[in-house]
Amino acid sequence: MRGNGVRVLIVGGGVAGLATVAALRDWGATIDVVERAPGPTDSGTGIYLTGNATRVLAVLGLREPVADVAVEITRQRSANQRGGRLFDIDVTALWQGVGACVSLPRAHLHRAMLAGVGDTPIRWDRHPVALSEEGDRVAVEFDDHSIERYDLVLGADGVNSTVRRLAFDAPAARDLGQYAYRWIAPRIDAEPVWSVQLGRGRQFLTIPISAEQTYCYYNDGPVADRPGWRDEVAATFTEPVASMLKALDHDDSTLHAGPNQEVVLGAWSRGPVLLIGDAAHATSPNMAQGAAMALEDAVVLAASLAAAGSIAEALRGYEARRRPRTDWVLNQTHRRDRATGLPPALRDLVMRRLGEQMFRSNYGPLFAQP
After folding, report:
1. For the segment 281-329, what is each residue's pLDDT rounded down to a tens digit?
2. Which of 5, 35, 143, 186 is the most buried (most CB within 10 A)?
3. What local confidence, expressed as pLDDT, does residue 224 receive?
4. How many Cβ atoms from other residues are within 10 Å of residue 162's Cβ?
């Protein structure tokens, strides 16, 4: 079907929402985008995009703008908390034929995607407060009390989705018992390597995101932002962890902290309302697949709408096609989280012997087209 005469509302102006705008731009529909934030921001930390994510950016015509402001990551290195090497992965070879793995400031990714869909206006500082079905359409009431009607409403508004709360009888996102800290520190290693140190049930990750900056990620147990956590982390892990923490002594404005959460739903659509990206299937970040799955959602949704005879048929086909892949990612994140909770001696033995094999099996199905 063509989108001529179809009105689509995308709630959320992040990766999932903007990717969907780009994917649907030639379909012919009238697309409105609303975003609760007051406008684009330069805040945030970093993001790592695996090869299946950059493959979709190429499909959407967004690969070059992102590559221009990104660092290409060539290797991933895993060590224990004392710095003992566990295994390395040549990610260039691993993702060959799929796409490059890159990292960059999250704000730079957002700006590149905004520029790529610049002909589609975004209504900032606006969000829905009520959704009601009217036959095959949805009446949407916004926070300014205006009401508009749409043939398709897409909830691309993240793990704590407003659309999910309004349209679905579903539980809130589930805490995973991990409290994560993210911040930006100066880059001290010229090599473009993704590096992680594994403690028991915790990890410290560093990724270069520009010539000057490193993205730091640390996840702990469920205790939220407890006093003295920085001293404890510095004492637990080896360098460059202490150096990365010192960046917070000089400027802690880049620090973002909060629980890791996941979203598991029995259905992603209700009538002509569909959830995409983290709103539908958020997971632990240990596979670095949040953005990738959102980008893939966009291109698969566009293909499903183009191939189907109706919106209802398209949404059924979309979910049938996407669920096996997102379920795979969910299951792999659970396995990887369990592995980090093993006793260190056993974990190190397993990782040294089987780490590379396990890593390749985690990602293998994602090499195929979504």
Report:
1. 999 999 999 999 999 999 999 999 999 999 999 999 999 999 999 999 9
2. 35
3. 65
4. 19
Question: With 0-12 CB in 10 A as exposed, 13-18 as middle and 19+ as buried, what is 269?
Answer: buried
Q: Which of 174, 299, 173, 186 is nearest to 248 (CA)?
A: 186
Locate the DSSP E strands across the chain.
Answer: 7-11, 30-35, 46-49, 71-72, 75-80, 85-90, 102-105, 122-124, 128-134, 137-142, 147-150, 152-155, 174-186, 193-199, 202-208, 213-220, 256-262, 269-270, 273-275
Terminal-residue alpha carbon distance, the chain: 21
Q: Are 78 and 14 in contact (CB under 8 A)?
A: no
Q: How far is CA 39 from CA 59, 105, 122, 161, in A?
A: 27, 17, 9, 18
Residue 46: beta bridge partners?
105
What is the rounded distance in angstroms from the CA atom of residue 326 to the CA atom of residue 317?
15
Query: Cα 234 to the chain's mean position, in Å?
Result: 28
Burial class (CB in 10 A: 0-12, 13-18, 19+), 194: buried
* Locus of tokens 């018992």: 177
State yes or no: pLDDT of 226 exceeds 80: no
Contacts of 145 by beta carbon, 8 Å cutoff, 6+ apart: none
All structural domains of the chain, each given as residue ranges with its CATH number in brackets, are: 7-173+261-367 (3.50.50.60)
User: What 3-state class would DSSP assign to 170?
Assistant: coil
pLDDT of residue 44: 87
**What is the distance between the alpha carbons of residues 293 and 315, in angstroms, rounded to a whole number?**
17
Euclidean distance between CA atoms 94 and 100, whole angstroms: 10
What digits encode the pLDDT tens for the residues 145-197?
999 999 999 999 999 999 999 999 888 899 999 999 999 999 988 899 999 99
The three-state secondary structure class of 93 is helix
CA trace torsion 206, 61, 64, 8 (10° rounding): -50
pLDDT of the residue at 241: 96
